[in-house]
Design a protein that fits this description.
Length: 256
């Protein structure tokens, strides 16, 4: 077995958690398997927000603990395969991200794309399907972070509450936001469904009619472990409130 095949491409934290919440962190890791030769990128790019969502895993782990919820997180950089994109999307294996070229993704053949899909996306997709299937009335929550400066522009939004066609949980979170945070909270900002970012919601929540939301946190707010824990605690109680407001009391609660 090569080193490349030996890695676990997906981690499942607290798989027997008692919560209806199924937490998903597609951009948790900036790890690029050795066989891909760093995708031709310098260290700075491999550590940057282009490769992952800094802080998102720490926040997700804290929410998982607070709610006793399962968390499915990718162990591989989104530049290898972006688990929040379907295999048909060109940016599932992007050749360019914001201002960074990714040489290792130039001119990928259909065979190479299929290999990446099977190796890095399929195990992740299957893990989410399994966890959603075994959860009663699952509530899908995906956790992301975004860069404060994008194409040279400062972003003022601090927490984005994103949704696709099913707006129920996003509406409830936006309605209850001020009881939980002073942050600038906006709907479908800095991204929205038109940017293709709601793939996980479309794939795993919409077909079954499951409550769902995607959360985007500005990464300068979750740089330290303490900040990540505080954000995770806040989001956990916010989710509990929002779910209760919809009338699904008891399915999500803070246990820690
Ligand atoms: Zn992300």
């Amino acid at each position: 077995m090569t080193q490349n095949q030996a890695i676990d491409t997906v981690q499942i934290v607290n798989p027997t958690g008692g919560s209806a919440a199924v937490l998903i962190c597609e951009h948790a890791s900036h790890y690029i398997p050795d066989a891909l030769n760093h995708l031709g990128l310098p260290l700075k790019a491999r550590d940057s927000h282009a490769a992952w969502d800094p802080g998102a895993l720490g926040v997700s782990l804290r929410i998982a603990r607070k709610l006793d919820a399962v968390l499915i997180a990718s162990n591989v950089s989104r530049l290898v395969y972006d688990c929040n994109r379907p295999p048909s999307a060109p940016d599932a294996m992007p050749a360019r991200s914001e201002v960074i070229d990714i040489p290792g993704n130039f001119n990928l053949t259909p065979v190479a794309r299929e290999q990446r899909t099977q190796m890095y996306y399929e195990p992740f997709r299957k893990a989410v399907v399994e966890q959603v299937d075994k959860t009663t009335a699952p509530i899908i929550v995906t956790i992301h972070s975004f860069t404060p400066i994008y194409y040279g522009q400062k972003r003022h939004v601090e927490i984005g509450v994103l949704h696709d066609r099913d707006t129920r949980l996003a509406d409830a979170m936006l309605n209850t936001a001020t009881a939980h945070t002073n942050a600038v909270v906006l709907r479908n900002d800095p991204y929205g469904p038109d940017n293709g970012v709601t793939h996980t919601l479309r794939e795993h929540a919409l077909p079954g009619g499951h409550l769902n939301v995607m959360l985007e946190i500005r990464n300068d707010l979750i740089q330290t472990k303490d900040q990540q824990n505080a954000m995770g605690d806040m989001i956990a109680s916010w989710l509990v409130d929002a779910v209760a407001a919809i009338g699904a009391q008891g399915t999500v609660q803070c246990v820690a």
